[in-house]
Design brief:
The chain has 212 residues and is of the alpha/beta class. It is built from ten helices and six strands, in the order E-H-E-H-H-E-H-E-H-H-E-H-H-E-H-H. It has one domain: Carbamate kinase, CATH 3.40.1160.10. The radius of gyration is 16 Å and the shape is globular.
Length: 212
């Protein structure tokens, strides 16, 4: 089985008019893909509780992953081809059945020593980590804001578009990656329709390719 493309859908998309069109694109995908949901308004509630009750970042991190579960269950309820999964085995079974798994991250990520349990790690970093665990899969982040598609991950971190853990993992694991924003639905459709792997490779992977 080919490596699936990991597609992270920003949680705020679920509150926008774009979500219906994006789910139609994802639902029609010819390429195998796994959806990583953002936390959206559920994560906003976690941030408020974190400040109000002075919770530890580790506790808030687990709560934020559960916020991703809530968004994931909602997305799975909005399209018949989407199905919530928690493990890599469940993911593979869903893909074998031509379904699109929506990853609920707590079970796999709670004890992952490669993930920092604090606010540096958001669903962006978790999506990159999943792509790494899938053997170096492509990762595509779909954001609600406008995105400069030519920008490097470090520049996107400085602009507040992606979290720093995403940039660290795509560099470390040499992952093919893309970050798409408002108005990039046609590019998302193109990526998911293509039978081969697409994405901007990290500088390390480009260097490897040049020296082969």
């Amino acid at each position: 089985m080919h490596k699936p493309t990991v597609v992270k859908l920003g949680g705020s998309l679920a509150e926008s008019r774009r979500i219906a069109a994006i789910l139609r694109i994802v639902g029609a995908a010819r390429r195998s893909c796994v959806i990583v949901p953002g936390g959206g308004s559920f994560a906003d509630a976690v941030r408020a509780a974190y400040k109000k009750h002075r919770l530890s970042q580790a506790v808030a991190h687990r709560m934020a992953m559960l916020a991703m579960h809530q968004t994931g269950m909602m997305l799975a309820g909005m399209h018949a081809r989407l199905v919530p999964v928690e493990t890599l085995a469940d993911m593979r079974r869903a893909l074998a059945d031509s379904r699109i798994p929506v990853w609920l991250p707590l079970k796999l990520s709670a004890r992952d020593t490669q993930i920092t349990a604090n606010w540096r790690t958001t669903s962006d970093g978790l999506a990159a980590r999943l792509a790494e665990r899938l053997g170096g899969a492509s990762v595509v982040l779909v954001k609600s804001c406008r995105v400069d598609r030519s920008a490097a991950p470090t520049r996107l971190v400085r602009a507040g578009v992606v979290d720093p853990v995403f940039a660290e993992i795509v560099a470390r694991a040499c992952l093919p990656w893309r970050v798409l924003g408002a108005g990039d639905e046609a590019e998302l459709a193109r990526l998911l329709a293509a039978p081969h792997r697409s994405g901007r490779r990290s500088p390390a992977r480009r260097a490897i390719a040049r020296h082969r």
